[in-house]
């Protein structure tokens, strides 16, 4: 696997032998970052169910200020740390070993807030709704965040959850990306613009 864009474009991620780590497909990762490109520079990112760390690392390459990686697999966390080291990103990345929802709550209690959140759990285990619920009250999100959930085409997500609502979804083969934005107020329609049209790959 390689970094697709940004200052580290073309750099390889370290090889791994750990089982059970499912990296997001390059096609889906490329599409994702073409869509959220304008939101990445300067962003504080949260990568849940981070796996190899490919999504958060891509964000750092494209100008995100920081990324917190959370995964319940010790092997995955070790792999992410190796990738951060190999790409000279240890000063901008933080890795936490633990449950996605509980880990998120732990950092929110410390006052952490995020501009961009990526949620890519194992499919068919109902993990994404619980992780998303940890962010639904909005206290861990900035004023204009983007939360992206990856799911199988056979799974569905809530259209609204707390302060968040789906404003866009894109399908890529068997994968769906759900884009959530903050609603403008309690019970009101969001005034935030929809996601931009997908750009050509950089």
Characterize the biggest β-sheet: 8 strands, mixed
Strand % is 25-35%
Helix content: 10-25%
Briefly note the CATH topology name: Rossmann fold
As laid out across the biggest beta sheet, the strand order is 3-2-1-4-5-8-7-6
CATH architecture grouping? 3-Layer(aba) Sandwich
* Overall CATH class: Alpha Beta
Q: In angstroms, what separates the terminal alpha carbons?
A: 17 Å
Structural class designation: alpha/beta
The SSE string, one letter per element, is: HEHEHEHEHEEEE
Count of helical segments? 5
User: How confident is the prediction overall: mean pLDDT?
Assistant: 88
What does this structure look like?
Strands 3-2-1-4-5-8-7-6 form an eight-stranded mixed beta sheet, sandwiched between helices. The chain is built from five helices and eight strands. By secondary structure, it is α/β, with parallel strands linked by helices. The chain has a single domain (26-137, 145-182), classed as Rossmann fold (3-Layer(aba) Sandwich), CATH 3.40.50. Helix content is 23%, strand content 26%. Helix 4 packs parallel to helix 5 (127-133). The longest helix is centred in the middle third of the chain and has 13 residues, at 74-86. The radius of gyration is 16 Å and the shape is globular. It has helices at residues 26-35, 54-61, 74-86, 100-108, 127-133, and strands spanning 44-48, 66-71, 93-97, 114-119, 141-152, 160-161, 164-172, 175-182. The chain starts with 25 loop residues before the first helix and ends in a 20-residue tail after the last strand.
């Amino acid at each position: 696997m390689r970094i697709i864009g940004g200052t580290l474009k073309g750099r390889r991620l370290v090889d791994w032998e750990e089982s059970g780590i499912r990296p997001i497909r390059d096609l889906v990762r490329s599409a994702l970052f073409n869509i959220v490109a304008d939101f990445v520079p300067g962003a504080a990112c949260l990568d849940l169910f981070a796996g190899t760390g490919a999504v958060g690392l891509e964000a750092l390459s494209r100008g995100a200020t920081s990324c917190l990686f959370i995964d319940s697999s010790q092997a995955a966390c070790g792999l992410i740390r190796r990738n951060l080291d190999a790409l000279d990103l240890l000063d901008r990345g933080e890795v936490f070993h633990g449950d996605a929802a509980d880990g998120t709550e732990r950092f929110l209690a410390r006052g952490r807030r995020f501009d961009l959140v990526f949620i890519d759990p194992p499919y068919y285990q109902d993990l994404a709704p619980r992780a998303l619920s940890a962010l639904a009250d909005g206290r861990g999100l900035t004023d204009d965040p983007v939360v992206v959930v990856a799911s199988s085409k056979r799974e569905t997500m809530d259209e609204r959850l707390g302060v968040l609502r789906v404003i866009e979804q894109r399908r890529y083969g068997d994968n769906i990306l759900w884009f959530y934005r903050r609603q403008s107020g309690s019970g009101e329609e969001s005034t935030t613009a929809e996601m931009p049209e997908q750009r050509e790959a950089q």
